[in-house]
Amino acid sequence: MPYQVPEPKIFTCTQSTKLSEKIAEHFGSNLGNVIFSRYSDGEFQPSFEESIRGMRVFIIGSTNPGPENLMEMLLMLDAAKRASARHITAVMPYFGWARQDRKDKPRVPIAAKLVAKMLEAAGATRIITMDLHADQIQGFFEKPVDHLFASTLFLPYLDSLNLSDLTIASPDMGGSKRAYAYSKALGCDVVICYKQRAQANVISHMELIGDVEGKNVVLVDDMVDTAGTLTKAADLMMARGAVSVRAITTHALLSGDAYEKIEKSKLSELIVTDSIPLKRESEKIRVISCAELFADVMHRVHHNTSISSKFLM
Question: pLDDT tens digit string along 201-213?
Fold first, then answer.
């Protein structure tokens, strides 16, 4: 009899449970049984409560700070490796610590490279992630990396809005490549914000390169943290004559007073994915799920079929 490839098993880290349930549903499977034992001092231990010997295992978990989320992923990878899983794929909708992808001053770490090495050492044989902060992070791995783009989710939504005089904007110089990719897909103009930081998460000055008068502007970025950049850019563009400003950001970190800034800003809406669970709801925040995208790619990886159609940018 021909060898039958066993169906993979899907497990989740605790903070990505809701997204993982959606992914498993789209995949046509159920989440595997894993429990976390916790000690009183905060130490925890994951345990797979079913056999995974010789199987393909998908472990889903975003690694946004605090460090516990990354530690969960590492321990689950190590447990899967020691349980003799054949293929161990770390599915990381949000790859945390990615802003530290280079030495921008002396005596600092390259945390993104360190995290990549830790994931491989723990047992990951493949990485599936979405909208890395910097494309070169793929090169930090010796294992295959499937780098998906949330543009496959956002572009259909933008088309559905039927916005006239549409202009794509980048909130900083580093995001210009992403903005140009969106503008090419949508056939519209691009403007760029130039900002200077006094320190991390603090903008001292911002200027606009390009004309937004009479335009419906869409800011695009990979993440929103304190929302200082996006809200300042939106206010600046409205002051320069824009008709409306909305923002698309893949990963909604939304720390500090980000929700208050967004609700008080000139942004008409903020569109994000559910790669990171929202801390609370807001009338200005719209969530587009990435579950079907990840489920489709996981299915293609398991059956060794092409995923190039998921790379629109």
Answer: 555 578 888 999 9
CA dist 91 and 104 (Å) reads 28
Q: What is the pLDDT of residue 203?
A: 57
pTM of model > 0.90:
yes
How many alpha carbons fall within 13 Å on the CB side of residue 234? 23
Ramachandran angles phi, psi of 310, nearest 5°: -90, 0
Residues annotated as catalytic (active site), given as ranges: 195
Which pLDDT band, with edges at 50, 70 and 90, does 313 fall under?
low
120: domain CATH number is 3.40.50.2020
Number of domains in the chain: 2
121-144 pLDDT per residue, tens: 999 999 999 999 999 999 999 999
Beta bridge partners of 161: none
Q: Is residue 175 part of a domain?
A: yes
Contact (Cβ atoms closer than 8 angstroms) between residue 34 and residue 76: yes
